[in-house]
Specification:
Protein name: Glycosyltransferase RgtA/B/C/D-like domain-containing protein
GO molecular function, one term: pentosyltransferase activity
Radius of gyration: 31 Å
Helix content: 55-70%
Largest sheet: 5 strands, mixed
Keywords: Cell membrane, Glycosyltransferase, Membrane, Transferase, Transmembrane, Transmembrane helix
Subcellular location: Cell membrane
Structural class: mainly alpha
Pfam families: PMT_2 (PF13231)
Shape: globular
Number of domains: 2
Number of strands: 5
Number of helices: 26
C-alpha cells in the first residue's frame, strides 16, 4: 500500500459487505424417472493400445514363435518328459497317472499340462503324439515366462528398451532353447513364481495382490516342490517398499494364502490315509524321503570329478552371457531396496548347486534363467540411471532422449553379440533344423508294424505314450521300464515276472537307468534277449528265456 493512501474504516454498527466468491458450476440435472444417465465416454482403440501393451503383445508373439520353432525335434525326448506326458494323459481322464501314484511330486503339475494341452490340440500343433503335444505346451510356457520377465522389469521401472534386451537374453539362451522347451515341471512352475513376484511388487500395495502373490507361490510349490526355495525372495520383494499402512495385513494375507494352497498336498495324502509310511501302501512320507535323502548323490561342486561340478560348469558354459550378465546385475541390484530381492533369489537358487551334496536334477537350472534375465535388466537399469542422470538433467526429455537410449542399447547388444556369436551360433543354430527324434520314430513305427498287439512290451518312459497309442491295451501291456521292478502291481498283472515280457524297446537311457536304479528284473530280461532291429541309439529286443528259465516258468 503506497504512502498517503487513506483507508476508510467502517463506522460502528454498519455491516461490512462480504467478498464475492466465484459461483460454482451448476450440477448436471438428475435423470428423470424412467430414463438412464449418459454413458461414460468410451476409450478409443488408440487409448487402449499403449506402448507397454503393444510391447507386451509383440514380445509374447515373438517368444511364442521362438518357443514353438522345431520344438518337437530340437532335442531328443527324455524319460522325464515321457513320464509327465503319460501322467497328463491320465489326468485328462481323472487319474493321477497310469501307474501307482507314490507322491514323488504333487499331481498339480501334470493336471496343468493336461489342461494346457487343449490349446495346441485345438490348433493342430504337433505330430499327433502325446509327447509332441506336451512339447508344444512347453513352448507356450516359455512365451508366458518371457512375457512375465518383461512385466516384472517394467514394474521395477526398467526402461522399455532394457527390458526387451533382458527378454532377448532369455530367449536366445541355449539353455532356454533346450531345457526351457522340454516337458519338465520346472517349466510349469516358473511362470507361477514370476507371477508371484509381479504381484508382490504391486505399486498400490493392494491386499488382494499380496494375497495373490502367496497363492501363486503356493501353486508353484504344488507344481514343483523345489519352488519353495524362492519363498524368501518373494517375501523380500513384498516387503521392499518399506513400511506402509496395512503392511501387517499384507504379510498375513501372503503367508496365509501360500500356506493354504501348499497344505492341500498333505491334506490329500491324509484323506487317502497315505500321509505316513506303513505296510501295504505308498505314502507322502516315503515320497519326500526319496526326493530329499534316498536319491543318489551328485557329489560336491568343489570336487572337480563329481557330476554336480560337471553339470553346473556345463550350464555356465552353455549360456555364459546370461549367467555373467545376471550375476553382475544382481550385484548392482544390491544398491536399491526395490531390487534387493533379486540377489536373494539367485542366492536361494544357487545354494543347492554349490553348497549341497544331494541329487541335482539336470533340469534344475530352468527356474534360474528368467531370474538371471531380470537381474541383468534391473542391474543395467540401475547402472544406466546412475550414469545418465547428470546428463538427463540438462537435456530436455523427449523423442531425442529415447532415441539416444535405444541407440546405446542397440550398440551394447551388438558388441556383446559379436563377442559371443561364434559359440552361440554353434549351440543354437542346429536347434532350428535338428531331427533329434527320427530314430525314435522309426523304432516306434517298427514296433507297431512287427510286434503283435497282444504281446507285452517294456519301453522307456520316453516312448511309453507313443507305443501305448498303438492300441496295445493298458499300462501292463506297454510297461514302463522301472515299473517292472518298482511297482508291486506288476507282479499282480504278471505272476511270472519279467519272463512274461516278450519285447523290450531299448533307448539311450535304458542301460544307465538299469544300473542307476538297480533294476534287476529288467536287467535279467534284457540279458535274456536278442536284438532284432536297430535304429541309431534305439533297438528292439526279443526276450528269449533260457531252457532253465522256461523249466522254472513251467
Amino acid at each position: 500500500m503506497s504512502a498517503g493512501t487513506l483507508v476508510r474504516r467502517p463506522r460502528p454498527g454498519r455491516a461490512v459487505p462480504l467478498p464475492q466468491l466465484p459461483t460454482p458450476p451448476a450440477a448436471a440435472p438428475a435423470p428423470r424417472a424412467g430414463t438412464t444417465a449418459e454413458p461414460a465416454p468410451r476409450r478409443s482403440a488408440r487409448d487402449l493400445l499403449t506402448a507397454d501393451r503393444v510391447t507386451a503383445a509383440v514380445t509374447f508373439a515373438v517368444a511364442l514363435a521362438v518357443g514353438l520353432w522345431n520344438v518337437t525335434d530340437a532335442t531328443a525326448f527324455q524319460d522325464d518328459e515321457g513320464t509327465y506326458a503319460a501322467q497328463a494323459a491320465a489326468a485328462a481322464s481323472g487319474g493321477f497317472g497310469p501307474y501307482t501314484y507314490w507322491y514323488d511330486h504333487p499331481p498339480l503339475g501334470w493336471f496343468q499340462l493336461a489342461a494346457l494341452a487343449a490349446i495346441p490340440r485345438a490348433l493342430g500343433i504337433g505330430d499327433g503324439s502325446e509327447l509332441a503335444l506336451m512339447r508344444a505346451v512347453a513352448g507356450l510356457l516359455l512365451a508366458v515366462t518371457a512375457l512375465l520377465v518383461l512385466l516384472v522389469l517394467r514394474r521395477l521401472a526398467a526402461p522399455r528398451t532394457i527390458a526387451l534386451v533382458a527378454v532377448a537374453l532369455l530367449l536366445t539362451s541355449p539353455l532356454a532353447l533346450t531345457l526351457g522347451r522340454q516337458v519338465f515341471l520346472d517349466n510349469v512352475a516358473t511362470p507361477w513364481l514370476l507371477l508371484a513376484v509381479w504381484l508382490a511388487l504391486s505399486p498400490r500395495r493392494a491386499l488382494w495382490a499380496h494375497a495373490g502373490a502367496g497363492a501363486a507361490l503356493g501353486v508353484a510349490v504344488l507344481t514343483k516342490l523345489t519352488s519353495l526355495a524362492l519363498g524368501p525372495a518373494v517375501l523380500v520383494a513384498l516387503l521392499a517398499g518399506g513400511r506402509w499402512r496395512g503392511r501387517s495385513f499384507s504379510l498375513t494375507a501372503f503367508l496365509t494364502a501360500a500356506s493354504l494352497v501348499v497344505t492341500v498336498f498333505p491334506l490329500m495324502a491324509l484323506l487317502r490315509t497315505e500321509l505316513l509310511a506303513g505296510d501295504g501302501h505308498v505314502s507322502l512320507q516315503e515320497g519326500l524321503e526319496f526326493q530329499l535323502a534316498d536319491r543318489s548323490t551328485s557329489g560336491s561342486f568343489w570336487d572337480g570329478a563329481t557330476d554336480r561340478h560337471a553339470l553346473v560348469i556345463g550350464w555356465v558354459g552353455q549360456s555364459p552371457l546370461l549367467v555373467v550378465a545376471g550375476v553382475l546385475g544382481a550385484i548392482a541390484c544390491l544398491t536399491a531396496a526395490r531390487t534387493r530381492w533379486l540377489p536373494v533369489a539367485l542366492a536361494c537358487l544357487a545354494l543347492p548347486m554349490i553348497a549341497m551334496t544331494g541329487y541335482l536334477p539336470g533340469m534344475y537350472v530352468v527356474g534360474t534363467l528368467p531370474f538371471l534375465a531380470i537381474a541383468a535388466g534391473a542391474g543395467a537399469a540401475r547402472v544406466w540411471g546412475a550414469l545418465t542422470s547428470p546428463v538427463r538433467a540438462r537435456v530436455t526429455a523427449g523423442r531425442g532422449w529415447r532415441i539416444a537410449t535405444a541407440g546405446v542399447a542397440v550398440a551394447t547388444i551388438a558388441a556383446l553379440g559379436a563377442a559371443v556369436a561364434p559359440s552361440w551360433r554353434a549351440e543354437v543354430r542346429p536347434l532350428a533344423t535338428a531331427r533329434a527324434n527320427d530314430d525314435f520314430r522309426e523304432a516306434v513305427a517298427w514296433v507297431e508294424t512287427h510286434v503283435p498287439a497282444s504281446d507285452d512290451v517294456v519301453v522307456p518312459f520316453s516312448a511309453w505314450s507313443a507305443v501305448q497309442e498303438q492300441g496295445r491295451g493298458g499300462p501292463w501291456n506297454v510297461i514302463a521300464l522301472e515299473k517292472v521292478d518298482r511297482d508291486s502291481a506288476f507282479e499282480a498283472a504278471h505272476p511270472d515276472g519279467w519272463r512274461s515280457v516278450e519285447w523290450i524297446l531299448e533307448g539311450p537311457t535304458t542301460r544307465p537307468n538299469i544300473d542307476n536304479l538297480a533294476l534287476a528284473d529288467v536287467g535279467s530280461a534284457l540279458e535274456s534277449s536278442e536284438v532284432v532291429a536297430t535304429f541309431g541309439a534305439w533297438s528292439v529286443h526279443r526276450v528269449t528265456p533260457s531252457a532253465l528259465e522256461r523249466q522254472v516258468r513251467s
